[in-house]
Amino acid sequence: MRTKPYTRENAVAYAHKWAFGRNPRYYNYDNIGGDCTNFASQVLYAGAGNMNFTYTFGWYYRSANDRSPAWTGVEYLHSFLINNKGAGPVAIPSDISQVMPGDIVQLSFDGYSFGHSPVIVSVGDSPSPSNILVAAHTLDTDNFPLNAYLYVRVRFLHVTHVNVW
Predict the structure, then answer these.
(1) Contacts by 65-74, CB closer than 8 A, 24 or more apart
(2) What is the chain's pLDDT, residue by residue, as a tens digit (165 residues)?
(3) Domains of the chain (ranges plus CATH)?
């Protein structure tokens, strides 16, 4: 296996293009739990260029009914990104100072479980919740300040590279 860079420019361009729309190649999960992590996965795929087709524990989408749990599930995406030893994007848990456009933010609204996965599209010179802008689905947003969400906890996933076979 080798690694390649994550193409942040492609990820952010995809996020802006589809923030207020739905790519017809992917099912819209808005009415069955939310589309935020599906959208985040699409953005990650735009920057990574490959999926991980490992059954159950991979990260892939073939159709609405043939996808990995990590493609659409907040906690599953987190687990995949930080533990991935196979193909696809790899991320590390990070603090706010390390985030870059194309990275993922996960929010907890109740303080216990994480339930939303916006994508970072812009970061100020000294990253703070007021100058980190995100794009997301379910409640569609683009260039939306992170501090406009009413969250209890936040975690950041900084994409470091992409594994390829």
Answers:
(1) 70/41, 71/37, 71/38, 71/41, 72/29, 72/33, 72/37, 72/38, 72/41, 73/37, 74/36, 74/37, 74/106, 74/114, 74/115, 74/116, 74/117
(2) 999 999 999 999 999 999 999 999 999 999 999 999 999 999 999 999 999 999 999 999 999 999 999 999 999 999 999 999 999 999 999 999 999 999 999 999 999 999 999 999 999 999 999 999 999 999 999 999 999 999 999 999 999 999 998
(3) 2-164 (3.90.1720)
